[in-house]
Write a structure and sequence with these properties.
Helix content: 25-40%
Number of strands: 10
Strand order of the largest sheet: 6-9-8-7-10
Distance between the termini: 35 Å
Radius of gyration: 21 Å
Strand content: 15-25%
Number of domains: 2
Largest sheet: 5 strands, mixed
Shape: elongated
Order of helices and strands: EEEEHHEEHHHHEEEHE
Number of helices: 7
């Protein structure tokens, strides 16, 4: 029996239905050919069972060994259990509701909203600057590692719906709503973290056509997107 193989810690996997890998160290996505998928499904614990279609061709032992050696050289696989992990896909509850507020149609909000927003403006500016600096000077691997390391038991000191309402009301004064999902999600993550909230940062992919997206989620609630939008993507990494 051939010894098992393991994914490197910075590699994440999902089936869409073909297997897609996220190489966090190199910040790239990889789609595996079907013959490689079937080969690794027999060797890597936790490999998604649904993504093992019939191989287009049989592989000789020499060819199979060459494929494995190449994936090890690329830093995707390892033969050492203590240096790797099982290929278990990311898991998070299926979103059932979205907490993103309705678009602000009234230019002047109620006084109570303005007073809250004024109080939260420093946190909004701090979060925006921190997210811009992190994405410019740090790798995604480093950013997500720090967030995961600091995740722990916290006690939110503000209502989540109210925080989101204030965040989206203040957003046009600080940055454009058309900026990429990575920056918006990280900014909101930092903002909510100032008040004890630690939602999960979800990265997803879709196939045909290929696309990648990310959003924040608290339990079954999506915080910065719509249900229809996130339903198009399969989670590949949850921070």
């Amino acid at each position: 029996m051939q010894p098992p193989l393991y994914l490197q810690p910075h590699i994440f996997i999902c089936s869409v239905p073909d297997v897609v890998l996220l190489d966090l160290k190199r910040n790239r996505y990889l789609a595996l050919p079907r013959h490689q998928t079937q080969l690794l499904a027999r060797r890597v614990p936790g490999w998604p069972a649904a993504s093992t279609p019939p191989a287009d061709r049989s592989l000789s032992p020499q060819t199979a060994d060459g494929i494995i050696d190449d994936l090890i050289a690329q830093g995707i696989l390892t033969r050492t259990p203590s240096h790797g992990k099982a290929a278990t896909p990311a898991s998070i509850p299926t979103p059932r509701r979205a907490l993103i507020p309705e678009p602000q149609l009234i230019p002047q909000p109620p006084a109570s909203t303005w007073q809250r927003a004024e109080c939260y403006l420093p946190a909004m500016i701090w979060s925006t600057i921190k997210a811009k600096a992190a994405l410019r000077f740090q790798s995604i691997e480093h950013i997500t590692h720090k967030i995961a390391k600091r995740r722990g038991d916290s006690r939110p000191d503000a209502d989540l719906a109210s925080l989101l309402e204030d965040f989206y009301w203040l957003r046009p004064f600080v940055f454009s709503g058309h900026q990429r999902c990575l920056f918006q999600s990280l900014t909101l993550l930092y903002f909510l973290g100032r008040f004890g909230w630690q939602p999960r940062w979800v990265f997803g992919v879709r196939q045909a056509p290929f696309g990648a997206h990310c959003w924040l989620q608290d339990g079954e609630a999506v915080l910065n997107d719509t249900l229809d939008r996130v339903a198009l993507f399969t989670p590949i990494m949850v921070v």
